[in-house]
Specification:
Structural class: alpha/beta
Largest sheet: 4 strands, parallel
Number of helices: 10
Shape: globular
Distance between the termini: 30 Å
Radius of gyration: 18 Å
Strand order of the largest sheet: 2-1-3-4
Low-confidence stretches: none
Helix content: 55-70%
Strand content: 5-15%
CATH class: Alpha Beta
CATH architecture: 3-Layer(aba) Sandwich
CATH topology: Rossmann fold
Number of domains: 1
Length: 248
């Protein structure tokens, strides 16, 4: 099986990709894996060549991952597809002898329609997180205003869900993974089996559970901080609170 991890930046896609890797899903060699950075010291669990190729497509469109206000799916023309097809096929070929494998890049939310025709049996794993937490994380990492972070969250998720409409997929809530890691991981593993993904193993590692616990407390602190700030703007606070309640 070919497992594609989808989701907005800062939504927990790296955590889910790491979990898949711990279950036995292959993703890269040491040379092709993206190295950890200060923004993500635990690692991205994605391929550098996939990220570079997707960034090249954005460049052809005169865009970047964070400058997509004019992005529309009909911009992904046959000419753009031709630019991607050969290098993408080489990457997929290198993965095929390692099934089940997984590929993760938030840019897939916008560009997956270019990749899907090259895949035989793709399964989507869609990770979602509430918009305030995503926007705050982007603010901390990139210095983006909260409004930009929320706008990017909306664009990525709308495009990602549209691109995956005909894709067998598993939904994972970042909030549920933090709140109930054991139950969520067990359900995730069963969902993978139900999608006929074979060759994975179910293994709850204490280190991973500790990481989830620490993330939970950090998220509570961040949310409280945002609430204090937004309480001075009641209308904006109520609007964002409704969005949080919907995605939790």
């Amino acid at each position: 099986m070919q497992i594609i991890v989808l989701g907005m930046h800062r939504s927990g896609t790296s955590m889910v990709a790491r979990l898949l890797n711990m279950m036995g899903a292959y993703f890269a060699t040491e040379e092709t894996a993206m190295p950890p950075t200060a923004a993500n010291p635990k690692g991205y669990w994605e391929r550098e060549d996939i990220r570079q190729l997707n960034d090249r497509i954005f460049s052809l469109l005169g865009m970047s991952w964070d400058n997509i206000i004019d992005f529309k799916s009909d911009l992904l023309t046959a000419a753009i597809q031709q630019q991607l097809e050969e290098p993408a096929s080489k990457i997929i070929f290198s993965l095929e002898s390692h099934r089940p494998w997984m590929a993760k890049d938030p840019r897939f939310c916008l560009l997956f329609s270019l990749w899907q025709p090259l895949l035989e049996v793709p399964i989507g794993v869609y990770v979602y997180r509430n918009p305030i937490q995503v926007a705050q994380s982007l603010k901390n990492r990139e210095g983006f205003p909260l409004t930009l972070g929320i706008a990017l969250w909306e664009k990525y998720n709308l495009c990602g869900l549209a691109n995956g409409v005909n894709l067998p997929k598993i939904l994972i809530s970042h909030a549920e993974l933090i709140r109930d890691p054991v139950g969520t991981v067990k359900k995730f593993y069963q969902d993978l089996l139900d999608c006929d993904v074979r060759g994975l193993r179910f293994q709850l590692i204490k280190k991973f559970r500790l990481l989830l616990m620490l993330n939970f407390f950090m998220n509570r602190i961040i949310f409280t901080f945002i609430k204090i700030i937004l309480i001075h703007n009641k209308l904006l606070y109520l609007k964002l609170l409704k969005m949080v309640m919907y995605f939790n």
